[in-house]
Structure formats: C-alpha cells, structure tokens
Amino acid sequence: MIAQELLDPLSIIAEFSIGLAGFAGIVAALSHFKEEMRELVEFRFANLLITAFAPGFFALMTISLSIIGVDALLNLQISKGLLLLYLLSWMGWAAIKTPPGVHPLFRLLMWSIGLLNICLLTYSLMNNADNSLGYYMAGLSLILLNGAIVFTGLALLTLKHR
After folding, report:
1. What is the distance between the alpha carbons of residues 50 and 42, in angstroms, rounded to a whole number?
2. Coil vs helix vs strand at 50
3. What is the dihedral of CA 139, 4, 14, 109, to 10 degrees?
4. Cα separation of 53 and 72, whole Å?
5. pLDDT of 36-55, one tens digit each?
6. What is the domain range of residue 92?
7. What 3-state DSSP class applies to 32?
8. DSSP assignment of 74-95, as one string?
9. ∠146-38-105 over CA atoms, to 5°?
10. Measured between alpha carbons, how far is 100 from 115 in angstroms, rounded to an integer?
C-alpha cells in the first residue's frame, strides 16, 4: 500500500518540478543572445534543466519505491542517500562547468544552497533523524530553489538582451 504521507508532498514536488522545466522551455524559445554570451547561457540552461527535472525524478522514484512495497523509512533512507549522491555529482559538474561570467552573487547562492542541502541530508542520514520525510522534502525543495534562482537569472538576462 502507498504511504499517503509520502505520496501527497512528493506529488507536489513532481508537479512543481515539471512546471519549472516547462517554463525553461518557454524562456529558451524566447531567447536570442549574442555569440559572446553563448557559454554563460548554455551553462544556465543546462543548470536550469538539471535543477528543474531532478526533484521530479527523485519524487517519482520515491513514490515508485512506495508503490512496490518498500517500507517508508527504508524508502526515505534510500532516496536521501541517492539525492546526496546526486548533489555531490551536481556540485562537481557545476564546479567544472561554471563559466567566468557568472555573477558572484549567483555563485554564492548556488554553492550555499547546495552545501546547506548536503549538510542537511548528511545529518539526516547519519543520525537517522526522526523526521526523514521533512529532511527529504527540504532537500528536494532546496534543489527547486536553486532552479528558481537560475530561472529568474535567465529570464532577466533574456529581458535585458531583447
């Protein structure tokens, strides 16, 4: 049986994630940038798609594990562990791919949110925290926050260069 306390909040995360990714497509369709901005814009779009889709995929994975009968606490431990691996991979990718033109405030926000998320998930996994769903939801929400910040920067950049 599906644990309803997992299904409802994770469904909301999946819907928000898909909506954010859809808006990324709209911004992409409306965007026209000069060649010298190509590297920055490509990084922002890639980062936006990664941070928009990831929470939705993780939410659906967790829902799927629940549907196949994995115990709710084990499900959340597995999901938090995989989310932590994703975050570490994403930060490695971002460290390599972030072009020099990225505004320092954006860099600070991106790294701060990512590191906070890693700390919260690590704490929750190491201490078998009582509110596993809360920590997991916070982790997914922080990724969506990162995506929203990237989306805002990209949308403003699009308006600026029209």
Report:
1. 12
2. helix
3. -20
4. 23
5. 667 777 787 888 888 888 89
6. 4-160
7. coil
8. HHHHHHHHHHHHHHHHHHHHHH
9. 35
10. 21
C-alpha distances (whole Å) from 5 to each of 27, 47, 95 are 34, 30, 36
- How far apart are the C-alpha atoms of 125 and 78, rounded to whole Å? 9
Q: Which two tokens stand for residue 24?
A: 């990324």
> Model confidence over 12-36: pLDDT tens digits?
777 777 777 776 666 665 666 666 6
Q: How many domains does the structure of the chain reveal? A: 1
Q: Which long-range contacts (CB under 8 A, 24 or more apart) does 126-133 make?
A: 128/77, 132/73, 132/76, 132/77, 132/80, 133/5, 133/6, 133/9, 133/76
Where is 73: in which H helix or E strand? helix 72-97
Q: What is the pTM of this model?
A: 0.83
Between CA 90 and CA 101 the distance in angstroms is 19
